[in-house]
């Protein structure tokens, strides 16, 4: 936090009334003195981004009433954005349905329809029974008026901060993408070596019970990679001839096929 002293101003208001807009019996909203105080602080500091945490503390209306939600977003937060000539990020907790659907929604549809963009921070879901990293997170863009929807950033909680691991889509540089792919390739090979050393064979056939990407994402050597990334890694390694599909004889003397490293490619 000391590194952010010259960049970030934090208003610590734990236990205080943090309502930014209240409503009368007719549903008309009025900004509060807290709103005016925050506006003055943000303008005086030349803030270009204002983060409000959370909606439950700042919104004094009924989250199910569309007109009240729109007034709050447009007249309270929208006015702050215009006055600082920047952006306002409102943090909010999703409903049970929003969590189940991975949409992050809660309350009136106006929460989603009124804003220009919306992000959702979630935990990754298991793939085929894979063990999950308890510190892993996924930041997804679920709405955007001026960008592609669906892009995700893979994050991990380390040393008190969320660090970016990998971003899907086209907004990341080729260097970081290449690093991620190489790491996935190495993890695939490590899982393959471990499986073979244990006397287990991995298949390249998707419907096989020993399908390599499915089997590897349940191993300790997976290094946080899931089935889809292992599938891409397998295709890259097959294309580079670092691995190949070989015929072998099972202990019951039945012929079968499995993935093996290609001789001379151990350092790939």
Please give a structural write-up.
The chain contains 8 helices and 10 strands. The chain is an alpha+beta fold and 268 residues long. The strands form 4 sheets. The chain has a 4-stranded antiparallel beta sheet. The chain has a two-stranded antiparallel ribbon with strand order 1-2. A two-stranded parallel ribbon has the order 3-4. 32% of the residues lie in helices and 22% in strands. It has 3 domains: 1-114, no CATH class; 116-172, no CATH class; 174-261, no CATH class.
Instruction: Label the structural class.
Output: alpha+beta
**Cα-based radius of gyration, to the nearest Å:** 25 Å
Total domain modules:
3
The percentage helix is: 25-40%
Distance between the termini: 41 Å
Strand content: 15-25%
Major sheet size, sense and barrel closure:
4 strands, antiparallel
State the strand order across the main sheet: 5-6-7-8
Task: Report the mean per-residue pLDDT as an integer.
Answer: 88
Name the helix and strand elements from N-terminus to C-terminus, one letter apiece.
EEHEHHEHHEEEEHHHEE
> What is the general shape?
elongated
Number of strands: 10
Q: How many individual helices?
A: 8
Q: Segments where pLDDT lies below 50 for 5+ residues?
A: none
